[in-house]
Each structure stands twice: as C-alpha cells, then as structure tokens.
Amino acid sequence: MNKNISKSVIKRLPRYYRFLCELEEQGCDRVSSGKLSEIMRTTASQVRQDLNHFGGFGHQGYGYSVPRLKDEIINILGLNNTHDAVLIGAGHIGTGIAAHMKFENMGFRIAGIFDSNDKIIGDTINSIPISDIKTINDFTVGRDIKAAFLCIPKDAAPEVVKNLYNLGIRSFWNFTHYDIHADYPDAIVENVHLSDMLMTLCYSMNEQED
Amino acid sequence: MNKNISKSVIKRLPRYYRFLCELEEQGCDRVSSGKLSEIMRTTASQVRQDLNHFGGFGHQGYGYSVPRLKDEIINILGLNNTHDAVLIGAGHIGTGIAAHMKFENMGFRIAGIFDSNDKIIGDTINSIPISDIKTINDFTVGRDIKAAFLCIPKDAAPEVVKNLYNLGIRSFWNFTHYDIHADYPDAIVENVHLSDMLMTLCYSMNEQED
C-alpha cells in the first residue's frame, strides 16, 4: 500500500470510487479530468494532482481509464481485503444497513447479526440469522472477526463494546453516541453522528434565511 | 446570529452541544476547559479559543456554565427555530430515523411521512401516518415545509427531488447517493454517505495491519 498519500486525498477516494462505479455502470470506459472535477465539484487541476499520487494514468487528450482508476482506488483503500464483521442490533437502522448495503464492495462481510430482543432472534436478514447477543462469545471462537457495526442504543453500548474488545475486536462502525475512543484509545472507530449532520443542516438553513 | 464564527468552529458545535447535553443530564452545572477538551479530544486552549468566539463565559477557576454555553450554541445553530420537514421513504432507515431521533432538539419537526409502498401507507411512526407519496403536493399547500429527509433508493431520488423542488423545498437531508447539488446548485444539502464511511473504516484497518 502506498503510504505517501495524504489523509486529505484518502478522504476523497471513496467519493471518487463511487463516481467511477457509476461511470462504469453507464458503460463509460474513459473519463477526462474535466468531467471528474465536475462530478467531484473541484478543479481539474486538483483531480490531476489527486490521481497523480497513485500512478497517474491520465493521458493528454485521452483521459483516465475508468476500470484502471477504480482498481487502483480499490487497492489503496484495500477494499478487496475482506474483513469479517458482526452487526450488533437488528432494529430499524441495523436492519436497513444489513439489508441494503453492498458490504462485499466495501471490504466487509457480515459474519453474524446479534440482538437481545427475543421477538426477532431467529429471524433472518439477507439469509443471515439474527442470533442472541448472549451467544456471541461462542460465535467468535475460531472465527477471525475484525470489526463490529454498532446499531444499538447508547446506554447498551459500553457493556457491548467492552465484551467485543475482550473478544479481540478492535474496529467499530459506531452508530451510537458512545465515545469508544475515550475508553479504548487503540480502537479504530468510524462514528456516524446523524444528529450532528442534522444540526449542521439546521445551521445552514438559518444562515441562508438571515 | 453571529456571522463572524468560522466554519471550522461551527462544524465542532454539534459535538460540543451533544456533550453539554450529556453533562446536563448528569447534573453537571459547570465544566472546565480542561474537561471539555478531554471530551472533545482537543486542547484546553483550543476550547477556550472556540468558546471565546461566542461570548466567552469562562471564568478562571470557575469554568463554563453548562446551561449558558448550551443555550448559546442553540442560538448560534438556530436549533430553537423549528423547521417543518417531510420524510420521504419509510423503509428501515427512514423508520429508524423517524422513530428514534429527537428532531425537536435539532431544529426540525416531521410534518409528514411519505412512501409509495401500499403495504405501509396508513401505518404510523410515532403517531405520524405514512401517506401516499402521490398526495404530497396537496399536503404541502398552506404548509411551510422547508426541508425533506430522503430515505429512498437512489433511482427514485431524481424524480422525487424534482417534485419537492417545484413545491419550493430547498433543503435536503440526503441518505441517497443522488447528487442533488449537481442538478440544483441553490439547494442546501447535507449528504449521509454511509458507504464512504465504511470504506474509510476499511482503509484505517488495512493501514494498521500493514
């Protein structure tokens, strides 16, 4: 993996990747830096600079090869290196994620789904059964579970995370507001703070009204 | 509203706000810049600088008043200025949001929920009925609907947004990958790109493994 790519470029890669997938779906084999910059809402020079970081497949008058660029981003982000994950909490959000997201395209596989609600234990989401959270310790034995997706109420999070951490899980996609890093500084955490986004939207709307 | 607060400070305010709400719930009346910096994972000097932007309620040896600081952030973000919104798409994600988020604390009220699926039209979420998307034009007459929360498949988004835009709705909390800004440059959009976050998590995990 190329270690010399700056964080700011890395942050833009999922977005590039999404657009390249769309271009591919539309049957586009090549794309110009101008077109990419339009989609990315940045300048063509920024795009060229970004893409030069990892190979620079662009050719004057030809543009970039969509599949090559896509493959290169897959390599850099490591999306072809599939991590097994458990989904904790099969409420609305958890179910929505498990049912609709294409994890296999994003470096993950849901190995198991867990909940504490008797009413849904035994149900399946995309053929994956919902198991009793009490059985998770046994489940992880002999499996290489690397990550957990937390779709549970905040109050339940500290105990769940403590157990997962003790089971060796260090990476979390966290939909709760529990601050995992505060208790486990070595954890890798991607927080989804929906309320923060909503407040930002509120601010932007008020700002425009002024 | 204070227009002189930089965007980078504004971006941190929802986070401050969340922590202040928690402190208040715990019965905390005052907080030091040291404690706030710990929670915010920044320096005490950064916190003092941030909070000086809007009043500077801190006193040496006393700290900040939690309720005053919270009120000030509410004012800046305009969270007490409630905007009526419609939620489009009552699938798993839409239902999860409508059922669990405290919109009234974040400047919004869900005035109506709409879907195209006959099987769920007529159901309610938090006492709000799910209405047929075909009836949305009539619904908005005489109502001041400012925002739409889009929890629909990407393919359905362009037509839905076109209609909402024609109805005068300009602000969108967008869970789809449809690029609203590309078609409506004057729209206010807050995008929730869950897949981007997941890819970022994948990258961070691979980086640590290297």
Describe this structure as you would to a colleague.
Two copies of one chain form a homodimer. In chain A, strand 3 (83-88), helix 5 (92-100) and strand 4 form a beta-alpha-beta unit. The mean pLDDT of chain A is 91. The longest helix of chain A has 19 residues, at 7-25. The first copy, chain A, contains nine helices and nine strands. Chain A starts with 6 loop residues before the first helix and ends with a helix. By secondary structure, chain A is an alpha/beta fold. The first copy, chain A, has helices spanning 7-25, 33-40, 44-52, 66-77, 92-100, 136-140, 157-166, 180-183, 194-209; strands at residues 30-31, 64-65, 83-88, 108-115, 124-125, 128-132, 145-150, 171-174, 188-191. Chain A folds into two domains: 7-77, Orthogonal Bundle (Arc Repressor Mutant, subunit A), CATH 1.10.10; 83-196, NAD(P)-binding Rossmann-like Domain (Rossmann fold), CATH 3.40.50.720. Helix content of chain A is 44%, strand content 19%.
